[in-house]
């Protein structure tokens, strides 16, 4: 079975944030990191080369594959800020209606600019998802 490449590591979160080229993306990422730290009560930790994660949980698939993954996180990708909502979005339909402009993947929320969304709603979304994942 293949090893997961993205793992929690000891890389310096502040150095990573300082290295984000695009000033607006750097500022938005810092704001989301602060919000996540406040909501989760967890310190930010690098996962792989470009994801800042908070907390962790153990997963196990019916196939037998298992591992550990961040409970929530953020990454300043080239096209958008990616916020990791591990519970997906269907169970959060009411919050998603109020969030603003974004796109989603399976558990990724893509935000071009932080001002495009309601950060209070984002806080609620992160809090609810984190609580569900963390009690697992």
Question: What do you see in this structure?
Answer:
With 136 residues, the protein is an alpha+beta fold. The chain starts with 12 loop residues before the first helix and ends with a helix. It has 4 helices and 6 strands; from the N terminus they run H-H-E-E-E-E-H-E-E-H. It is globular, with a radius of gyration of 14 Å.
Instruction: Write down the secondary-structure element order.
Output: HHEEEEHEEH
Distance between the termini: 24 Å
Shape annotation: globular
- How many β-strand stretches? 6
Mean pLDDT: 94
Question: Helices and strands: which structural class?
Answer: alpha+beta
Spans of at least 5 consecutive residues with low confidence: none
Largest sheet: 6 strands, antiparallel
Instruction: Count the DSSP helices.
Output: 4
What proportion of the residues form beta strands (DSSP E)?
25-35%
Secondary structure layout plus pairing:
Layout: H1 13-18, H2 23-40, E1 45-47, E2 51-60, E3 66-76, E4 81-85, H3 93-99, E5 103-104, E6 108-111, H4 119-135
Helix pairs in contact: 2-4, 3-4
Summary?
With 136 residues, the chain is of the alpha+beta class. Helices cover 35% and strands 26% of the residues.
Descriptive keywords:
136 residues
């Amino acid at each position: 079975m293949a090893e997961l490449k993205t793992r929690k590591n000891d890389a310096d979160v502040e150095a990573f944030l300082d290295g984000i080229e695009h000033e607006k993306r750097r500022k938005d990422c810092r704001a989301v990191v602060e919000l996540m730290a406040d909501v989760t009560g967890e310190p930010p930790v690098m996962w792989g080369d470009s994801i800042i994660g908070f907390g962790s949980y153990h997963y196990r698939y019916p196939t037998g594959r298992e591992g550990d993954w961040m409970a929530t996180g953020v990454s300043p990708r080239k096209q958008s800020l990616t916020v990791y909502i591990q519970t997906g979005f269907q169970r959060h339909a009411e919050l998603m209606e109020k969030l603003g402009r974004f796109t989603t993947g399976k558990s990724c929320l893509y935000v071009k600019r932080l001002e495009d969304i309601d950060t209070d709603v984002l806080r609620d979304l992160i809090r609810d998802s984190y609580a569900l994942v963390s009690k697992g």
